[in-house]
Amino acid sequence: MTANLPFETLKTLVKEGTIDTVLVCLVDMQGRLMGKRFHASNFVEHSWQETHCCDYLLATDLEMATPDGFASTSWESGYGDYVMRPDLTTLRLAPWLPGTAMVLCDVLDHHHHAAVSHSPRSILKSQIERLGARNTVANMATELEFFLFEKTCDQLRRKSFRKLKPISGYNEDYHILQTSKEEIIMRPLRNHLVAAGIEVENSKGEAETGQEELNIRYADALTCADNHTIAKHAAKEIAWQQGFSASFLAKWHQDKVGSASHVHQSLWSDSGESLFRDSVDRYGMSTTMRQYVAGLLKYASDITCFLAPYVNSYKRFCEGSFAPTKIAWSVDNRTAGFRLCGDGSAIRIECRIGGADLNPYLAQAALIAAGLAGIEEELELAPPTSGNIYADTEARDIPRNLRDASEALNGSAMLRSAFGDEVVEHYVRAARWELEEFDRVVTDYELMRGFERA
Ligand code: ADP
Fold it and tell me: How many domains would you assign to the chain?
């Protein structure tokens, strides 16, 4: 993509005092922005070339713990540095923060300046390069669903996240009236993102109390992942600025619908023709698309860990909730894991497995790897499934929990070949750490159920 904010323009804005701060960010394993706030004058003179960070940033969890078992870094290796190299094509204004611009970085080895292979941006870039070798471009869109709550996260944390009150009192799916009441957050979110060069299509109410969805126009996979990450970050910051909170937890309450991040995918030639379209096919699908979708189906269990990375992610997969439970494809049917959408050159496959908690770089890289494997193996696509797929006893289940998904990832010859053993083992360790941490915690559920009666 071209920079929303050319470097020369930034220099002028800094000189005239309009911009005084530049956020220099990497994307971590959880899909969060981590980095430093530079004084803009330092950034334009020196740090635009590179800065440094501790290498534990790509070997930690949501709590910033330092788990053992990662080959890339440890207490034994002394937790050294990575180079953060700003990708100036991502330079943009961050208009929801006063006087601020931002840039995303590639993460490089400190000594040799080689890309760090388990960095999410680098993993996605490698799969994009594999497509590039076939003169192919992936266009993707990741929907962002999330809940808005009364009070900021800091206020809620002080109350241990109890008695959470969603911003609305009823299911607000497509509701204009209720979502008008949420414009205090959603209007600045849409407008600031557009001003930051992110093509927001719309926002809409979703099918639960306090649930919103933000849609961004599809783009090449790397731009899509960058946009998703910045939009998610901006939603949290703008909600906080207005005294509310935005949560992308996949399932915040067992009686509420969860939040998804559906991923729309299509392949194009590098001269801009859809490689998924075939006007004579019954469903409008080309052979390439059929093989790609067959790859998604064959390898759905292998890649689920990248679509549902936490223990909590699996609580979303409930029958009758619009979140899938089965590995099946269908024509415009929201009960399947994969849904055929659009027609003509808009034809695309939507993966409905991913939760709002996914890391878009890892999710898209895994989806591309699975689809490419389908093309390379020239897989046959079975006929679509129809009706209520929750009740389909023939279709395979999506892994039921993180333990099963992490074992499927560990055993995936496809992903080991596409990503490399080092990358797969890094993310298997991350998943196992999530399980170890969860397994040692005594939950509220156990206390309430057993305190007196066990
Ligand atoms: P729905 O409401 O049925 O989920 P939308 O019409 O809102 O579908 O589209 C969902 C997303 O799909 C949008 O973000 C859009 O930009 C994206 N999209 C449209 N065409 C393509 C395509 N060819 N490839 C990938 N994504 C696409």
Answer: 2
